[in-house]
TrEMBL record:
<dbReference type="InterPro" id="IPR014358">
    <property type="entry name" value="Enoyl-ACP_Rdtase_NADH"/>
</dbReference>
<feature type="binding site">
    <location>
        <position position="13"/>
    </location>
    <ligand>
        <name>NAD(+)</name>
    </ligand>
</feature>
<dbReference type="Pfam" id="PF13561">
    <property type="entry name" value="adh_short_C2"/>
</dbReference>
<protein>
    <recommendedName>
        <fullName>Enoyl-[acyl-carrier-protein] reductase [NADH]</fullName>
        <ecNumber>1.3.1.9</ecNumber>
    </recommendedName>
</protein>
<feature type="binding site">
    <location>
        <position position="95"/>
    </location>
    <ligand>
        <name>substrate</name>
    </ligand>
</feature>
<comment type="function">
    <text>Catalyzes the reduction of a carbon-carbon double bond in an enoyl moiety that is covalently linked to an acyl carrier protein (ACP). Involved in the elongation cycle of fatty acid which are used in the lipid metabolism and in the biotin biosynthesis.</text>
</comment>
<keyword id="KW-0520">NAD</keyword>
<comment type="pathway">
    <text>Lipid metabolism; fatty acid biosynthesis.</text>
</comment>
<feature type="active site" description="Proton acceptor">
    <location>
        <position position="156"/>
    </location>
</feature>
<comment type="similarity">
    <text>Belongs to the short-chain dehydrogenases/reductases (SDR) family. FabI subfamily.</text>
</comment>
<feature type="active site" description="Proton acceptor">
    <location>
        <position position="146"/>
    </location>
</feature>
<dbReference type="GO" id="GO:0006633">
    <property type="term" value="P:fatty acid biosynthetic process"/>
</dbReference>
<keyword id="KW-0275">Fatty acid biosynthesis</keyword>
<keyword id="KW-0560">Oxidoreductase</keyword>
<feature type="binding site">
    <location>
        <begin position="19"/>
        <end position="20"/>
    </location>
    <ligand>
        <name>NAD(+)</name>
    </ligand>
</feature>
<dbReference type="GO" id="GO:0009102">
    <property type="term" value="P:biotin biosynthetic process"/>
</dbReference>
<comment type="pathway">
    <text>Cofactor biosynthesis; biotin biosynthesis.</text>
</comment>
Amino acid sequence: MNFLTGKRILVTGIANNHSIAYGIAQALHRAGAELAFSYQNKKNKLRLEKFAKNFNSNIVLPCDVTKDTSIKELFNSLAKIWIKFDGFIHSIAYAPKKQFKGDFINVINRKSFTIAHDISSYSFVAMAKASRYMLNPKASLVTLTYIGAERAIFNYNVMGLAKASLEANTRYMANAMGPQKIRVNAISAGPIKTLAALGIKNFKKIISYYKSVIPMRRLITIDDIGNTAAFLCSDLSSGITGEIIHVDGGFNIVAMNELNL
Ligand code: NAP
């Protein structure tokens, strides 16, 4: 199934092979896309270069989304290799660790609010702003969100607010970029054990509760997310923009099932 042949896509957010972005890269590669990668932490550079080789790529570039200069340098460097490209995967989020533990009102503070929104929401539009001139018509931008944007989840705290902002950002970006024939969507993923997720207190309990109530009775994998991202990056999804697509085994449609009675 080479439905992404001829598409060039930048993937951000691979920390290791458990990262959601890793599953997305696998699916994009299977479907025939050419890939480029960015990393923040210098410690991940070598590992990412190795992964990139498996995906027939040698494009591995640094980018810390908290700095406009770093975002600009990412696309300046990419432009020397790809004059134009067909989209990017934004798989980036961060809030200080203390925010993911305990009573929301007690732990929230102005600084953490700002950091969470800057890295987890603003960075998506910042990347679009910096790369707009390089994006081909029919390009597709995809970000990752979580149901904590729609409903209160204990310990998810300020990240729920940042994800709500990211989802609104997705709709505003889709509206602004639609006339340029660029689509923008978000995947609302079910919980997956990744480095970022393990920073949330009691994340393992979230997973086991989730597994017990979702219609599909199985956990979502990075393959499930990857396949949806590949669809969203392809012309198969040409009529879809500004959407938040739940890839969560149906968790979001359930209020109660027989296991809770
Ligand atoms: P992950 O493997 O830890 O990936 C998070 C990535 O964010 C890392 O690669 C990290 O880079 C990057 N990042 C953080 N700050 C950055 C910065 N300033 N500049 C550039 N990159 C930065 O965790 P993940 O679960 O796959 O997370 C990917 C996305 O999926 C996030 O948006 C997350 O909220 C979302 N999501 C996750 C779940 C879940 O259950 N896992 C569910 C729904 C949505 P470094 O490693 O270099 O710091």
